[in-house]
Amino acid sequence: MSDIAKVQNAVMSASFLKRFGPWLLLALGLIVLPFFFSSNIAVYTMNLMGIFIIFALSYNMLLGQGGMLSFGHAVYFGLGGFMSVHFMNYIEADIFVVPVVIVPIFGGLIGLLFAVIVGSFSTRRAGTVFAMISLGIGELIASCSLIFVAFFGGEEGISADRTMGPEVMGVDFAQDIEVYYLIAVWAFITIALMYLFSRTPMGRMANAVRDNDERIEFIGYSQRKVRFISFCASGFFAGIAGGLFAINFEIVTEENLNALTSGVVLLMAYIGGVGFFVGPIVGAVVFTLLQTLLSNYTEIWQLYVGVLFVSTVMYAPQGLTGLIAMHIPAFKMKRLRVLAVPYVRAGIPTLLLLAGISGFLETIHHVRSAAVGETTMSLLGIEFDTHTIMPWIIIAVLVVVGGYLTKTQMPQLREAWDEANAPLKSDEGGAS
Questions:
Q1: Pick from 135, 221, 290, 413: CA 20 to 30 A from residue 35's CA?
Q2: pLDDT score for 38
Q3: Which helix (H) or strand (E) holds 226?
Q4: How far apart are CA 354 and CA 394, in angstroms?
């Protein structure tokens, strides 16, 4: 009896770790990250990363789970931010006496309210019609932000002071690290809620509507209601992200709800992979790092983001997460080592090719934007004169040699890939 009990306990422990292990690791990671990255720029980056993760996941509820391509999702993010910053001003004026920690919920509610209004007519159709409606709504609200100055503050936006609310356990959120833990708590809660939503019958139905909406109608479900509920939930979580943005930066402007921000969240979701729940998380992390770190080294970082997006669409439509997931079969069959050498052989010339292309872009940008007579530039710590022939020769050699070697290595890489993913003989025997 004791042996049976031990086996049952072991099975229960394994089941518990499999079910809750990732969430425990996520919580632990959020807690200890500031101990390893404690600089001001690191905390700033992690704060922005947490906000963008919530924002991108909320967008993926539309695109990835529901198949609704939206060009105006920043509306709910921005309105949530404006509502939250106004609420912080109400707290400062003693109109409301509530801690700042619950302010994001009011941003979520205004996002939900506006999503209910817009979703009541926009979710009747999907595809191009829905996308055009979302684009029109986005431009409408962006225009209103410059007209209704009392609420939106015009071009200057609305600012607030997050330290004016009642303290929570002695914390007044004057320090960025305190705001980090506030964002981390909200990120953990919202990630868990959005994951649970994706596992509910409604979340499953959203996937079904995305794949075949006519079949859903045939079996008795309303595709419009499914889209509407997903749309409202997405607006709610986007509003929470906007509220956290308002707390972190203490200002919200028209830029936070215009088409540019809507394009940013689309980039994050698609680069990470809209077909996976963790895809937008990966995309938000990558985009934030590019925005905050790469922008310190180059003025054309947005061009690199655009190139990354186009490359993802053309060569990795499942996103960066999809690229990782493609290696799971080889990992399960313990064949990843087959790909190691071909990856190195193809990776080195590819890096040379990318270095040449990047050097060309940076040099062209310097030639076009530098002051008159300023011909010297620095690239990776190397200074050279852009008006001499040698730098251009080196760039051309990198592009030509890197491109040629990359092309010659591709057939071997394909052969290694086929070998690593070939079915096991036991599987072939079982299938026969």
A1: 290
A2: 85
A3: helix 223-249
A4: 13
For residue 42, pLDDT beyond 60? yes
Task: Tell me 424's DSSP state.
Answer: P
Give the H or E element holding residue 386. none
Query: What pTM value is reported for the model?
Result: 0.89
Q: 17: pLDDT confidence band, cut at 50, 70 and 90?
A: low
CATH 1.10.3470 domain position(s) in the chain = 25-324
Q: For the range 32-38, what are the long-range contacts, defined as Cβ-Cβ under 8 Å and sequence gap of 24 or more? A: 34/177, 34/180, 34/181, 38/177
pLDDT at residue 432 in the model: 45
Position 86 pLDDT exceeds 70:
yes
* CATH entry, 25-324, from 1.10.3470, 3.40.50, 2.60.120, 3.40.1710: 1.10.3470
* Nearest one of 359, 353, 280, 351 to 321, comparing CA atoms: 280
Residue type, 190: T
Three-state DSSP state, 377: strand
Which of 64, 287, 74 has its CA nearest to residue 195?
Answer: 64
Strand spans (E) along 244-316:
251-252
Radius of gyration of the chain (CA): 25
Range 314-340 average pLDDT: 87
158 strand-pairing partners: 252
Q: Where are the beta strands (DSSP E) in 225-268?
A: 251-252
Spatial distance between the Cα atoms of 152 and 141, rounded to a whole number of angstroms: 10
> β-strand 382-385 against 251-252: which pairing, if any?
unpaired
Please state whether beta strands 382-385 and 376-379 pair in parallel, antiparallel, or not at all (unpaired). Answer: antiparallel
